[in-house]
Amino acid sequence: MSRPNLARRVADAAEIALTTRKYVTFIDVVTGLRWLHSRHVDTWRQGRSATLGELAAVDDARLLDAAAALREWALSRGLRPMETPYLSGSRERRELRFTASGEQGSFRVHWISPDLSDARVKQLAERQSKAPDLVVVAPLETWTCATCGDTGPFLIMEDDRPHCLTCADLDHLVLLPSGNAALSRRAKKESGLSAVVVQYNRRRKVYQRQGVLVEEAALARAEEQCLGDEEVRQRRRDRDRERRAEQDLDYQARMAAEILRLFPTCPPGRAESIAAHAALRGSGRVGRTAAARALDENAITLAVVASIRHLDTGYDRMLMDGVPRMEARDRIRPAIEAKLSELRGRREP
Asked: Hey, which end of the chain has fewer CB within 10 Å, N or C?
């Protein structure tokens, strides 16, 4: 990839993050470039990799080039630099390294929009400077503690090696499964020592939160607090649910309008259906990505392609007949291109 092309791709990824959150990080850029997946970032943050570069699809020199391109773009946009500490979720809370050698500061800079208020910047800085939660992994594979040679349902990384909770002095904590946000938040606040429990989801290829380990007495206090204001919190949940529903409808309407702009011969009803399907909250579909929320043309096109694939081709029947997924996609590619041209108002000769 040439430097001008890299600069353009970095700018595209950074624009999406800036539109979504009003600030941009190096992590936003490398995940936007598809050099790293979010699961790789999770592994690195847990302290299970010496550097982020070890997990990337490119070498350290290319990561440095991307950081330099991000800096040039950010300065040209008038963004404010804010260097942010990156600490691991392992017991020693060591400083995370992006590459094996060289200065690390350029990777740690968060570029802040001038539109962000001073109060919001201060809040962001305070949150970023806090030490991360301890992260405990519920492993899927058989493992052995580096200290005692035993095993268990959970492990925590220390000195880049797995340790059981007994050897890590965490075996007095109890697991509070995910599902009750208020109880989890209060139990964690009441507990002098706590750790977030995650497990790798092979299907979605991400680490997912399973719960939190807290002190038993802290959990009891948190349960009492939750019983005392259950009615108030229920009313708040109802209001939040209504607010999210309104936001979803507004977002779907904007996405449908963008579909009609890019594909003017698409029937309005179908554009609305594509937007509603792609943007369904919690679905994990393309419409829930940061790029789609920024109405990125490529993300919107992918949502339309998904609709065409299932409604206008024989793709689903091929899968039912046992055709491998990638082979089925190769077979239907001409049909998809023809339909896209039709929806754009162009007919294939």
From this structure: C
